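Predict structure. Chain length: 119.
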Amino acid sequence: MTTSTPPLREAARAVVLDADDRVLLLRYDESGGFWATPGGSLEEGEDHATATFRELGEEFGIGEKAVELGAQLAERSKDHLVGGREVRQVEKYFLTRVSAADVDPARASQPDNIREHRW
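Prediction complete.
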C-alpha cells in the first residue's frame, strides 16, 4: 500500500497583540471548534505578509494602515482537514499590533466560521 502526500497549502497567521500585550485568539466553528490565531491560506500570487493583512481585513474589517506588521515569529507544518480534505499546511506566524478598538467581527467580510474572539 502506498501513501500519498497531501497537497500543500500555504497559510499566514497573525499573532495579534494590543497595546496591553494581550493576544487575540479566535474560536472557529469547525472540527468541533478550536482556538487559533487569525489567518488563512495564501491566494494565488500572494506572499505571506500580504495574506496576513488580507486575513485581518476579512476576519475583522481592519484596514492595512491600522496594522503594525512585525517580524515572522515561527513556521510550522501540519496535516490539517480543510473542507473535509486533508492538506499539508505550512503556516508562517507574524507578530502584529492593532488597537483593541479596531477588532470588530461585525465588520468582517469573510468571518470563516468564527464563533467568538477573546483577548
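Summary: The CA atoms of residues 63 and 89 lie 26 Å apart.
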